[in-house]
Design a protein that fits this description.
Length: 395
Amino acid sequence: MIGGGQLARMTHQSAIALGECLRVLAGSADEPAAQVSANVVIGAHDDLEALRTAAEGAVALTFDHEGVPLAHLQALEAEGVQVRPPSAALHFAQDKMAMRRRLSELGLPVPDFVDLSGDVPAAREALIAFGDAHDWQVVLKAVSGGYDGRGVWITSGRDDALAAFDANAGGDTILMAEEKVAMARELSAMVARSPFGQGAAWPVVETVQRKGQCAVVLAPAPGLSEESAQRAQQMSLQLADELGVIGNMAMELFETVDGELIVNELAMRPHNSGHWTMDGAVTSQFEQHLRAVLDYPLGDTSARSEVVVMANILGAEDAPAMSMDERLHHLFARMPDAKVHLYGKSERPDRKIGHVNIVGLPGATVDDVRERAERAATWMSTAVWTDGWDPHTAS
Ligand code: ADP
């Protein structure tokens, strides 16, 4: 496993149940997965020698992020390492421009886009032509290296778009621009694909973003028509097949105000939009990723309940004086059904440090389950009950 973050940590949890121990390449011993694996290689994910050391004797090599340079992966593949997903597929998760091009070649719906990788004056002209043609509904993006909204500039008109371009063009960042989609909401269609060619799709979920990162996931996406859900699953399965993905793939989608589905992003690894599966689906995304990478038959992706909600625990602006341990005590006292997953990370503002899953009981409404999940996550972040609950009077 290349990368020692929470995705690696939770994949390791699933590996234990399958009788495996992940060897983790982590930047330091205190990273979330390095804390829990007995087999850690300390090194950088962009250091070929460190990658070779981690891959030595491994059945397969996989990732918890998209940051490994493609050339290194190609070198490892040439040396016989089973890189999963393979570099030829991962390329499309690393490079938004290549992804947009490939998806439009395959006839999948994507926002209009323009390549701004050329020399700066020509790229600026291209941006002006694109902006004029799209009423300056423009999102500027770094082609690679962005995550959780970093490297995405949602602009508010010509001056703002050109200012964002001028501030970011010409350096190491390669830019593209795309049409700002008038969206009703964001969805994620997660699938897994094995080398054998088996594919499996989880229910399509709604992802609620705050400050450019995922905050809440509603599973399944409330009110999504059966037809749209199936179309999203089909697009995701077919794309995983066309690209030769091995392991999980999350296809992030926009549902437009007209009910159309447009593909935004691809991630080829376990993904935040799949955390609900740990408690809410027959097979969690972490186990499925391992099954796919190890070419086992894939697991049942059915939801265990009609409503499951995941809320991220994000570091508060000011970390509360109450310890995480005490917050957990209080949460469990109030909500015995809340399933908490903590990543072993220190608290910093807006940092993903854990998540809460609530699996709705029969008849529960999505609004109720969501309110409870968000209340639990906010409590864990801030030590404040959003409804003013007093643990001493229990009211
Ligand atoms: P990241 O790689 O950081 O996840 P994304 O490309 O997913 O970046 O963009 C982050 C967020 O920015 C999206 O979740 C969405 O809310 C918004 N966004 C991105 N592209 C567009 C677009 N074309 N139109 C409208 N909003 C967008």
